[in-house]
Amino acid sequence: MSVTVITRPQQYHIDFFQEHLADLSLAGKRVLEIGAGIGELLRLLQDHEPVIDELVGINNIDYGAVDVGRRARLVKADVCAMAFPEHEFDLVFSLATFEHVHDLQRAVEQIHRVLRPGGLLIAKWSPIWNGFDGHHYGETVKVRQAIELPWAHLIFDRTTLGAYLVDGEGFDRNQARQATEDIYESDWLNRQSLRVYREAFAHPGFEVQRFDGIQCNFGPLMARVAAAVDRGFVPRWRVAEFFRRARPEEILTYKLIVHLRRREERPPTQNARPVPTVKS
Ligand SMILES: C[S@@+](CC[C@H](N)C(=O)[O-])C[C@H]1O[C@@H](n2cnc3c(N)ncnc32)[C@H](O)[C@@H]1O
Q1: What pLDDT sits at residue 270?
Q2: In ligand 1, which atom is closest to the CA atom of 12?
Q3: Sign of CA dihedral 6, 10, 14, 19
Q4: Atom of ligand 1 nearest to the CA of 40
Q5: pLDDT digits (tens, 9 = 90+) for 141-166
Q6: How far is the C-alpha of 171 from the C-alpha of 151, rounded, in Å?
Q7: What are the structural domains of the chain?
Q8: Could you tell me if residue 98 is left (phi over 0), alpha (psi between -120 and 50 degrees) or otherwise beta?
Q9: Mean pLDDT in residue range 177-205
């Protein structure tokens, strides 16, 4: 028996739509969503602007029968290997997806290829891995909502986090093994740093209109870390070592908002590869 999933936007879809898409004039335009999930934004968009010429969403997995509305279609495709022709779209947008894309440079190159000159890329995602909940544990194994200690996955490593989950959080050994495998090895997240995102999106064929990082509030997070130290669940030296090495921008940025406009032409100076110099 096949069941058709009906999409229902959640508040974060509505917020993204209102903040980034609702004011664009998209009549007669061709639009692509990268990582469309079950198409909540596709539906919002066509309800808002029924005369979009083409509205396609891609995912790298097949979600089966999903009702995304009459004017949109959902297809299985990897952003790094899209079969769409060059210059096919006026707008490419994406929500909560680039933290899952492993080859970011290739993805940006492909988006550049399918956008027409002057076309826009609008994306929002979390640079999750270096964030306080970068383990994203509650999402991958529903044993528990999340590990309580902020940055636990970076303060510990795989072995010591396993021990912490058993001794400090009361997991059984199998659960702890499964959790640490998911956290450190699954290919669900790319585990990239802000620096890598910055480099990947600094493509010479795009003009950067926005590259905003939204930062979380350090005080309450630090109070939770301090409480874990006081309870004796995490050694003080381990926490001190983590904060000594960590760059604030990397560990506090929890959302990225990127607006890029495809240039008409690549600027010739940036197109050329730097010539290596040889010291005599
Ligand atoms: C966390 S979901 C977000 C779905 C939707 N944008 C939302 O906000 O509800 C990430 C989506 O990105 C898709 N995705 C991950 N890597 C991808 C890739 N390399 N190419 C295309 N889609 C990808 C997944 O299939 C998944 O649907």
Answers
A1: 53
A2: 8
A3: negative
A4: 9
A5: 555 544 678 999 999 999 998 888 88
A6: 18
A7: 5-125 (3.40.50.150), 130-188+221-249 (no CATH)
A8: alpha
A9: 94
% of the chain at pLDDT higher than 70: 90
Which pLDDT band, with edges at 50, 70 and 90, does 92 fall under? very high
Distance between the two ends of the chain, CA-based, in angstroms? 73
Ligand 1 in reach of 257 Cβ (< 6 A): no
Judge residue 50's burial from the number of C-beta atoms within 10 Å of its C-beta, 0-12 exposed, 13-18 middle, 19 or more buried: exposed
Counting ligand 1 atoms within 8 A of each CB, the residue from 40, 60, 79, 80 with the most, and so the one to mutate, is: 60
Which token pair is 44? 């919002």
User: What are the angstrom distances between the C-alpha of 221 and each of 76, 86, 196, 216, 236?
Assistant: 39, 45, 25, 9, 16
Question: Tokens 């879809």, residue?
Answer: 13
Task: Compute the distance between CA of residue 238 and CA of residue 248 in angstroms, rounded to an integer.
Answer: 17
Beta strands in the chain (DSSP E): 5-6, 30-34, 54-59, 66-67, 72-76, 89-95, 115-125, 206-215, 253-262
Which amino acid does the sequence have at 165?
A: L
pLDDT average, residue stretch 232-242: 91
Would you say 92 and 79 are in contact if contact means Cβ atoms under 8 Å apart? no
Atom of ligand 1 lying closest to residue 95 CA: 6
Q: What one-character-per-residue DSSP string does 216-246 give?
A: P-HHHHHHHHHHHHHTTSS-HHHHHHHHHH-
pTM strictly above 0.85: yes
Model confidence band, residue 228 (pLDDT cutoffs 50, 70, 90): confident
CA 247 / ligand 1 centre spacing (Å): 28
Report the nearest-CA residue for atom 13 of ligand 1.
Answer: 35
